Amino acid sequence: MHLYDLWFVVIAVLWTGYFFLEGFDFGVGVLTKLLARDRQERRVLINTIGPVWDGNEVWVIAAAGATFAAFPDWYATLFSGFYLPLLVILLSLIVRVLSFEYRHKRDEERWQNVWENVLFWSSVVLAFLWGAVFANIVRGVRIDRHLDYVGGTGDLINPYAILGGLTTLALFTLHGTVFTALKTVGDIRMRARKLALRLGVVTIALALAFLLWTQYQHGNARSLPALLVAALALVATLVMNQRGREGWAFAFSGIAIAATVAMLFLALFPDVMPTSLHGGTSLTVSNASSGAYTLKIMTWCAAVATPLVMVYQGWTYWVFRKRIGVQHIAESAH
Fold first, then answer.
1. Residue closest to 213 by CA, chosen among 167, 171, 257
2. Do residues 217 and 225 lie in contact, with contact meaning Cβ atoms separated by under 8 Å?
3. How far is residue 238 from each of residues 159, 174, 178, 230, 319, measured CA to CA in Å?
4. Tens digits of per-residue pLDDT, 236-292?
5. CB–CB of 18/300 below 8 Å?
């Protein structure tokens, strides 16, 4: 295996980790309007992810940084061609952080309503746009023979990308719902389990449509097992949820997300950005990568830093592992 093949796998793992962890963050953000009945329940939902959401975002920074260092041509073409949707993603990430930090600074109802709406809509936008972006990467974009993106923003709006965005929105919302059932007690926990069943049916329909389309148009023998794992994991999520096994339901919803991301990368390889332009040149792991010495240094650095980050993040989840409910929220707290 060449080092550029290894770094393609590393980047796929980083994006998988990001969507697994940040996916339930986005889902909980959506649930602040979809599940919570009042401000106290919204505070419960926000508190379930309060200790971990910022650590989860480290994964997207690592994924973008690894892409920049290991595949500079991929990074340059991606961030120039997808400039507008990635700018919206960046702005949504920023205002979402502000909603966590500013919401509780004042106790006026109007102030808190504004930031709760920001949290909800930024979560919806992020969950949708990430799916649309990756769907367009797999589908292929207009790249000329000089490896430059020559399309426009309108080229990124197509039925396949829209279905990809709806799929990730549904997957992340389901993931957040089973996480809520896992992390809460009382009535909100029971309602989360009931909502997960309804969401699961919609998610399975969207995910199967998107994954089958992907397999038919862009897939290969490598991507087919990932499709089967994703479908089985979604069914297992609903079964475990119905049995009240929230931990297993959360694990299987995470496996469904991981298998979906894996399928996209398996369908993509050895390309990193295929061209849809006749006479164009696709970006591949070989023609878009950095030199061998750069990749070697990166490999040693990653081998040292990655275990430390994972141990620290695992410790954080262990410390804040207990369930919470409305009884744990002080009435006067803001």
1. 167
2. no
3. 28, 10, 9, 13, 28
4. 999 999 998 999 999 999 999 999 999 999 999 999 999 988 888 889 998 888 888
5. no
- Rounded to the nearest angstrom, the gap between the alpha carbon of residue 303 and the centroid of all alpha carbons in its chain is 24
Q: Which residue has the tokens 């096994």?
A: 245
Please, which residues bridge with residue 273 across strands?
283
For 288, the token pair is: 């878009």
In 3D space, the residue among 15, 43, 2 whose CA is nearest the CA of residue 137 turns out to be: 15
| 36, burial (CB in 10 Å: exposed 0-12, middle 13-18, buried 19+) | buried
d(CA 273, CA 283): 5
CB 89 within 8 A of CB 82: no
Q: In the structure encoding, which two tokens stand for residue 333, read together?
A: 């707290």
Q: What is the pLDDT of residues 304-327, one digit of tens each?
A: 888 888 898 888 888 888 888 776
H or E element that contains 283: strand 283-284
Residue 304 in tokens: 């040292």
Helices (H) and strands (E) in the chain, counts: 12, 2
Please tell me the pTM assigned to this model.
0.92
Residue where the block lists tokens 């009042």? 38
Which H or E run includes 166?
A: helix 159-183
